[in-house]
Specification:
mainly alpha; 6 helices
Amino acid sequence: MKTKLFRTVMLVSLLGLSAVVLAKSEIDLTKGQQTDPGAAAAIAAFASGQAGWYYVFYSNMPSGPDDPVLAQKRDLFVAVLAEKGIKAIGSRGGPSCIPSVFTPEEQQFEKSYNAMSDRLLKGKLGPSYMEDIHKEVARRMLANPAKA
């Protein structure tokens, strides 16, 4: 009981020092995950202040120009991630539209990286952070529609 009360008091009194609270949460969230390469990389990136998110997005290149609406959605998603302090990481150092070309190990790395990153980011930004990002992308697209 004393421990719970202490944690509550600390959380409320340290609103301006959320990094301290986050550091405690990070320890709890990542316990036992250091042996998984993707999770370990996400933990290390988060600890260094470079939270990241692997993603694969639509691109028609080099076959032809990208669909302007999908390109706008991609660019806005990357921009909103950056505004939240999340580094957008395309597969193999660059975005791709064909996830099947990646080895099972690469796919597993990205999956476990994102799973751990998601847990850490929920602790930092709230449980609906990704939904909020997608809503902001949709809002911006409506405010400034792409021109075909």
